[in-house]
TrEMBL record, chain A:
Domain of life: Bacteria
Keyword terms of this UniProt record: Oxidoreductase
Entries under SUPFAM superfamilies matching the protein: HydB/Nqo4-like
Residue ranges annotated for the NADH-quinone oxidoreductase subunit D domain, each copy included: 119-281, 285-358
Higher taxonomy: Bacteria, Pseudomonadati, Thermodesulfobacteriota, Desulfovibrionia, Desulfovibrionales
Protein name as annotated: NADH-quinone oxidoreductase subunit D
PANTHER family to which the protein is assigned, alphabetical: FORMATE HYDROGENLYASE SUBUNIT 5-RELATED, HYDROGENASE-4 COMPONENT G
TrEMBL record, chain B:
Highest classification ranks of the organism: Bacteria, Pseudomonadati, Thermodesulfobacteriota, Desulfovibrionia, Desulfovibrionales
GO molecular function, one term: metal ion binding
Name of the protein: 4Fe-4S ferredoxin iron-sulfur binding domain protein
Transmembrane intervals: none
Sequence ranges assigned to domain 4Fe-4S ferredoxin-type in this UniProt record: 33-62, 64-93
Chain segments carrying region Disordered: 93-131
Alphabetized UniProt keyword annotations: 4Fe-4S, Cell membrane, Iron, Iron-sulfur, Membrane, Metal-binding, NAD, Quinone, Repeat, Translocase, Ubiquinone
Gene3D superfamilies per UniProt: 3.30.70.3270
PANTHER family given in the database record: NADH DEHYDROGENASE UBIQUINONE IRON-SULFUR PROTEIN 8, MITOCHONDRIAL (PTHR10849), NADH-QUINONE OXIDOREDUCTASE SUBUNIT I 2 (PTHR10849:SF24)
GO CC annotation: membrane
InterPro entries named in the record: 4Fe4S_Fe-S-bd, 4Fe4S_Fe_S_CS, NADH_quinone_OxRdtase_chainI
């Protein structure tokens, strides 16, 4: 049979992200997928040479809108390791709370987009309705909906008082109840399962070999989560990586759904154990040396390589985002799939192209 | 079955959204909205200009001018934390959309005494070792 190349993206009705794949098809079956990246390169790393290391916190936050807090947290943790700063424990717990709130709203955003991807518009709106209340929590406690700017090198800038803690817990209880009502529709509905089960299968061995991260990896049954490293206050909190052994699109959506519920539990734990210390430690001197820092983003493991030369500007701020690691697994899961299933499979790695290209 | 009853409830029930421009939600107390400067207390120390990550603030100590480009501002409130006289603050209302860009320009009284003299001396000192 003759082969045809069909371009997928960078503008596609299903994905808001400029992901571009050249799909080699035989009839309607994918034989090969070739990615093309670089449409939204912004040159963020160059800014490190003209902005000082404290200002860079607000610049790395803008690598990705959805996981802004976690980017800043990773950068700050890297610098704190480099400069031997002991972060007060209250700051560590507050970082956990805000980063988990970010994970909740990111996963809800994805679940909505995924529902929209297979054409279930009303489910999409239900998820986003819930998400809006998480954004309200962010706005009320941190001062902004998305880019919350709470992290500084040495700690955090805002505190949660008792009333706010109570309010967050009350809201989370309501949100969890509403989310659990959607569980059956998302994971056990006949039409939904028709679109997701068996689409884009990635075995555990393939996932490990190709270096998949985050829900893509855990959806193949590998229990690996960068939060197990115990950064911030995660070493003192109880959680187990959520996994699902099937390795298809359904498994990845299940992992994300369960992780949303798990994150709510982590926020509750963190609030109940919030210690009473100051918020930020003093940071003496300028950064010297190099450090690699890893954290778990909603999309997977995020890696920062930082290099300081004793001046106020960083020499290198190299960022590897989870989508970059998840592109080879995406290419492995596409061959054999139908052309109509490509948007679903591509969505399940939760591509964030503008963070990948920075 | 949950979705079916939910969809019916949504058709019959009230709107889930607000009729936005006419009905707005009251702002949260700690929300970082518009940046305001109480220019009478400003000492034109340039702390905000130096700390600002988007470099949207320009301070001219000689003329006593404080300019801010609200369209470049990223609303991080670093300048508010850095301000030694607490003349900068953030309102909890966001800036209204505008048809054209503008710069907020405030004119205060420049500090004369030492600061002006020092800033005049400094370039001379800096130039001396180079020469």
């Amino acid at each position: 049979m003759s082969r045809t190349i069909i371009p997928f993206g960078p503008q596609h009705p299903v994905l808001p992200e400029p992901l571009h794949l050249k799909l080699v098809v035989e009839d309607e079956t994918i034989v090969e997928a070739v990615p093309a990246l670089g449409y939204v390169h912004r040159g963020l790393e160059t800014l490190a040479s003209i902005r000082d290391y404290n200002q860079m916190v607000y610049i790395v936050e803008r690598v990705c809108g959805i996981c802004s807090c976690i980017h800043a947290m990773c950068y700050c943790q890297g610098l704190e390791t480099m400069m031997n700063v002991e972060v007060p424990s209250r700051a560590k717990y507050l970082r956990v709370i805000w980063s988990e709130l970010h994970r909740i709203h990111s996963h809800l955003l994805w679940l909505g987009l995924f529902a929209d991807g297979f054409g279930f518009e009303s489910l999409f709106m239900q998820f986003w309705k819930i998400r809006e209340r998480v954004m309200d929590i962010n706005e009320a406690t941190a001062g902004n909906r998305v880019v919350i700017s709470v992290n500084v090198v040495g700690g955090v800038r805002r505190d949660l008082d008792k009333t706010q803690q109570r309010w967050i817990l009350d809201e989370l209880d309501k949100l969890e109840k509403e989310l659990r009502q959607l569980m059956k529709t998302m994971l056990d509905d006949y039409t939904v399962k028709k679109r997701t089960v068996g689409v884009g299968v990635l075995t555990a061995q393939q996932a490990l070999q190709l270096g998949a991260v985050g829900p893509t990896l855990r959806g193949s049954g590998v229990a690996q989560d960068a939060r197990q490293l115990g950064y911030a206050a995660f070493d003192e909190l109880d959680f187990e990586p959520v996994t699902s052994p099937e390795g298809d699109s359904w498994a990845r959506s299940k992992v994300r759904f369960m992780e949303t519920l798990q994150s709510m539990d982590i926020v509750r734990q963190a609030i109940s154990r919030l210690p009473d210390t100051e918020l930020a430690a003093k940071v003496p001197g300028k950064p010297t040396g190099e450090v690699v820092c890893r954290v778990e983003q909603p999309r997977g493991e995020l890696l920062y390589y930082l290099k300081g030369n004793g001046s106020k500007n960083m020499e290198r701020v190299r960022i590897r985002t989870p989508t970059f690691a998840n592109i080879p697994p995406l290419l492995a899961m596409l061959p054999g799939a139908q052309l109509a299933d490509v948007p679903i499979a591509a969505l399940t790695i939760d591509p964030c192209i503008s963070c990948t290209e920075r | 079955m949950y979705m079916l009853s939910n969809v019916l409830r949504n058709i019959m029930g009230k709107y889930s959204t607000r009729l936005y421009p006419f009905e707005t939600r009251p702002a949260y107390e700690g929300f970082r909205g518009k940046l305001v400067n109480n220019i009478h207390d400003c000492i034109f120390c340039k702390s905000c200009q130096i700390k600002c990550p988007s470099q949207c603030i320009t301070v001219d100590p000689k003329e006593g001018k404080w300019d801010c480009d609200p369209f470049a501002c990223v609303y991080c409130s670093v300048c508010v934390d850095a301000c030694p006289t607490h003349c900068l603050s953030m309102e909890n209302q966001h800036r209204k959309p505008a048809p054209s860009k503008f710069v907020v320009s405030l004119q205060g009284t420049p500090r004369k005494s030492k600061k002006a003299d020092k800033s005049a001396e400094k370039p001379a000192e800096a130039a001396a070792p180079e020469a």
